[in-house]
Records
---
Amino acid sequence: MKRHLEQKVVTQNVILTGLRGVGKTVLLETFRPIALASGWLWAGADLSESASVAEETLATRILADIALVTSAFVVHERKQLELGFVQSEKVIRQPLNYDILRNMYEQTPGLVADKLKAVLEFVWSVLPQQAIRGVVFAYDEAQNLADHAHHNQYPLSLLLEVFQSLQRKQIPYLLVLTGLPTLFPKLVEARTYAERMFHILFLKQLDTNASREAIMQPIEVAGCPIKFTEETVNSIVQLSGGYPYFIQYICKEVFDVWIAKIRSGDIPSVPTADIVRKLDTDFFQGRWSRVTDRQRELLQVIATLSTCDDEFTVQEIVNGSKEVLTKGFSASHVNQMLASIADAGLVFKNRVGKYSLAVPLLSQFIRRQTAQGMITIPPLPRTGV
Ligand SMILES: Nc1ncnc2c1ncn2[C@@H]1O[C@H](COP(=O)(O)OP(=O)(O)OP(=O)(O)O)[C@@H](O)[C@H]1O
Ligand SMILES: [Mg+2]
């Protein structure tokens, strides 16, 4: 991030991506003070689905975000004639707020992109350029952005086009997008130059030491009634697969159960089976219910592949299906089904056409469904998380 903030002319923007709950939002928040300390201003928000649905709504989002920055920094002066016999001019000073920017936007002729570019260009021209280096536009949940050709709405392309054009004019606006791994392929699909516009940071799960720290630090405060043994910490690390969201979820469960047990004088252990059952209901079942039985069968084949927690190809699935099903899948069938499963948010396709499971620890959940006899594929023995 620091290196990207060194750019005088912005040619490289940042994408921070990774699976659900891996820590993207938290990391994005830590970028903010770094940017401010390096003399950048920070604008941004969550890109909710409603903000991303149409070009106008996205433009409104961006205007609202930049207005927060400008109204703190820039005083807009305009002259107004005073009423009375002697005509005199009064200077009105007001912060450059949303209303003023919106007005300017409305009065600029052209398409949404032209209007937005004009306002953002104007904003840079009035910011105190000696004092600041540029503006970071940081958008979380950016995978919500999508072009909708059938509605003739292209908000995703709009964002890329506006920033590319401003950056070409050497206006130091840096785009930082955060989102699920579907984000980058989507950007490239909308505009091929997106490939060159972004540096991608792919967040993986925490390593063992960082996981241990995440488990231990919160209970190391004075007065905490709970201590974990080495064995307990290890089993939480193992169960969580190093995903911060799961670490937090499991630790909360353990904490609640232990507090109750300690009060009644018992020596507690990690209620692994209960936690897994609760996680399945709270986290996985909702996603699992979005796919059909046939699609589940395909996911179960995927969960038998040795590459299931990494990347796998259509051909690997076809081969795998021949091993575990009486009637295997054809490549075209797999392709079709993967597209629907991707729409349901359970897999994603990367830039080189390989697939990955889109939810952390999903393969283990799928194997648990298999083991419960929901389908007929025999579970293969597996090791590790
Ligand atoms: N480095 C870390 N170490 C320990 N815990 C972390 C770390 N980063 C994030 N967390 C915790 O993990 C949880 C998930 O983090 P966060 O919300 O940032 O993930 P995310 O990737 O944005 O998730 P989502 O995909 O749902 O938006 C949070 O409760 C957070 O406090
Ligand atoms: Mg997040």
---
Amino acid sequence: MVSVDALDILDDACFTKLISLIHALTGITIAKNRKSMVQGRLRKRVLALSLKSYEEYFEFVQIHDEERKPFIDLVTTNETYFFRTPRIWSHIESQTLPAWYQRNPGKVFSAWSAAASTGEEAHSLGILCQQFKDKNVSFNYEISASDISQRVVKVCREGVYQGRSIESFRNSMPETFSKYMLQNSDETFSVHPDVKRKMNFFEHNLFTSLKDKKTYDLILIRNVFIYFTSADQRKVLDLILPKLAADGILIIGESESLTGISSGLAKVENLIYRKDSR
Ligand SMILES: C[S@@+](CC[C@H](N)C(=O)[O-])C[C@H]1O[C@@H](n2cnc3c(N)ncnc32)[C@H](O)[C@@H]1O
């Protein structure tokens, strides 16, 4: 029987090892003052595995490759909701999609939600694209969405949402909500199949390069740079920029900035950049 009290202690040496492992696996930099957060997130898992201490768990993750995914699931922060930061969605709806459509007759608009969490961002974009398609029948689109956490990618694939994740969408855009979110027999809502069939979800670490040669007309990489140092942000940007099509748009999160690392991008407005093809 594991003593629960033993798990009240995460000593500094073990914490330091855990945060360097988190950095090595995900690029996430965890501050020294976040020990209780890390401890709180790992505690249940250590107990479930009947290990006696965080030190034992650290060794377990090192030895057992298959424990890396559950570990990553626990240490990532996956907060998200539909139409987060309304300003950027207005920009996509009123500027990005119409301008792209006019310049690219007959082509397929392609977008990537690059740290998608549970998929609310990718599905918000899908809903705007489908709405645009409903008005412009020859418009076509496809959306890729990825995350490092296997747990959230599974949720993306299901496309079923409830509670806080849909609350502001439901209140602020009731007509769009009732058209594209279909109520199930309980309090949950499924994304409309017309939108779902345009989605492709996969696991991907932003510190590795996407294998295919495809480029994207729009890349959303929002509320993930905050977890990286500026040197690591630069590494990620260097891997992402080749995936952005000429004149493609890249959008970051509300509390993020590319100041000092934005070479190759021209600022369109706050949070919104265009690939600088000159
Ligand atoms: C706070 S959520 C952001 C979700 C969404 N983009 C939004 O803005 O609402 C951050 C996501 O980044 C993912 N993440 C963290 N490090 C990553 C990495 N190295 N590669 C891919 N995804 C990562 C986490 O798993 C988490 O789901």
